[in-house]
Amino acid sequence: MSRLGGAILRFDSLPSTNDLARELAAQGAPEGTAVLAREQTRGRGRQGRGWVSPRGEGLYLSVILRPPLAPSQATILTLAAAIGVAETLALDYQIAADIKWPNDIQARGKKICGILIETSIEKSQLDYAVLGIGVNLGQREFPGELQGVATSLAIESGQTVTPDEFAAPLLRRLEACYRIALGQPSEIIARWQALSSYANGCAVRVENGASVVEGVTRGLSIVGALIVEMASGERREIVAGEIRLRKT
Prior knowledge:
With 248 residues, the chain is of the alpha+beta class. It folds into two domains: 8-195, Bira Bifunctional Protein, Domain 2 (BirA Bifunctional Protein, domain 2), CATH 3.30.930.10; 200-247, Roll (SH3 type barrels), CATH 2.30.30.100. It has five helices and twelve strands. The strands form two sheets. Strands 1-2-3-7-6-5-4 form a seven-stranded mixed sheet, sandwiched between helices. Helix 2 packs across helix 5 (185-195).
């Protein structure tokens, strides 16, 4: 497996680092190739939501992965990436990071990072996956719809950190977590649950189309699905949906 970030392609501005990384992956770019931009004009998160990406204010990074996994196992990649980000914030910048399933990193209950995995499937195997990570670094304030729900490294720690400075330790941790995810996925599940205050005992409402499930979180399954225990005692494994978590 190639070192993640062994080749980093840097751009002043891109519509989306994930879009370019997907194009490169489809053209055969090797695993570990990373795309880094100072600005995204059409950055996005899960379910097509926009990701505000002002110039020089955040880390906008996408990395090409070629894991030997079935599509049903891809969730472990998101969990591994979340651990890498949370540990970088905690260990390098002394920010008490929390993980909210499946892909949000929070500080004091506000979102500081989002993760987006996009995959290409061929013959029931992952041909490649693109790991997109957006971390708020330098913002001192946010536009109206994000006020009160978003934060940044600068707000939380008072430190001024460039995207490259943050990317260096992050890529090292991502590679370590990625290797563990491929060899010992149960360890990733355990580490994720240890880092998330939302993993157990939180009220949850999951909306997926017309389906709604309400209950209390009971950790993760062996493939990374969120386990929800309903009032009847029945437990459901949630793999997708619009999820709202509230600490009890």
